[in-house]
Specification:
This protein is an alpha/beta fold. It is 49% helix and 9% strand.
Length: 282
């Protein structure tokens, strides 16, 4: 784990939370606080990754590297770049920000013929919640997916507070998901995202004209996000859930809508997952 650019209170919280794991000799912590030299902030994740590679490819372990906060790291990179007098790019970040982040994120995976693996989980904050900010934007291009946490979802008490429309998974992309996901994953994901987007549009309309003015179809869409949040997103900290279970739950949420509103799902998939009595009712 490589936290960098943190205030004093945050490292104390991290240390306390990881004490049990460190006692089991399963944890290495590389720490750089906000009052440490900026150049050390650039070295911290690289040192952590070097140790991870040794543990994985020499000791044969499966290593998870959590790097937080990559926004603080990028701001340190911007500060050093400015001190060197380099020509700035977007939002004054150096033009090589993409390749620099990639040099960290891409130090993961396996080496053929050697045991062990390295998995990298970068964590960053989005300034003002702006996903187009250079750091989250470039991270999205490099990484194989992103999970966006939402203050709005957390405010209604859902855990984990994931924003599904802003998050991204490339598991279901053609050619990359073979053997790693189910055949219905792309269609279910596309239909669920489309339905959620429509549900949010209806919610905005309800704020303007009132729920009583909505059509029955709009009311069912309005209830969709609640079903998604409660049935699909909400998950206990000690609850294990497989990919198959998650996709089955996605079907449960989608089938709260009439078949006429599920036009992105192939008919054969709908026939397989729609109970006969529901099909007749719709």
């Amino acid at each position: 784990m490589a936290p960098h650019g943190l205030r004093k209170r945050a490292p104390a919280f991290v240390r306390e939370g990881l004490t049990a794991r460190s006692a089991a000799r399963e944890l290495a912590l590389f720490l750089n606080t906000a009052d440490d030299p900026v150049i050390e902030r650039l070295l911290t994740p690289r040192l952590a990754l070097t140790v991870a590679e040794h543990l994985a490819f020499t000791e044969g372990r499966h290593v998870l590297v959590v790097m937080t906060d990559m926004t603080a790291y990028s701001e340190a990179l911007r500060e050093v770049s400015a001190a060197r007098g380099e020509i700035p790019a977007r939002r004054a970040y150096p033009g090589y920000l993409y390749s620099d982040l990639a040099s960290l994120y891409e130090r993961c995976g396996r080496i053929k013929g050697r045991p062990g693996s390295v998995t990298v989980l970068p964590v960053l904050t989005m300034p003002a919640g702006d996903i187009t900010h250079p750091v989250p934007d470039l991270t999205g291009y490099i990484a194989e997916g992103q999970i966006v946490l939402s203050a709005g979802v957390q405010a209604v008490g859902t855990y984990p507070p994931v924003d599904p429309l802003a998050s991204l998974s490339r598991l279901m992309r053609k050619g990359t998901g073979a053997g790693r996901t189910r055949a219905d994953h792309p269609a279910v994901a596309a239909q669920l995202i489309a339905a959620l987007a429509r549900s949010r549009q209806v919610a905005e309309l309800a704020d303007l004209i009132g729920r009583s003015a909505l059509s029955p179809a709009d009311l069912r869409l309005l209830d969709l996000e609640d079903a998604f949040r409660n049935r699909f997103l909400a998950q206990g900290t000690d609850e294990g859930r497989s990919l198959d279970d998650s996709l089955d739950r996605a079907w449960e949420v989608l089938l709260t809508l009439p078949r006429s509103q599920l036009g992105m799902l192939p008919a054969d998939l709908l026939d397989t997952h729609t109970p006969p009595q529901d099909e007749e009712a719709q």
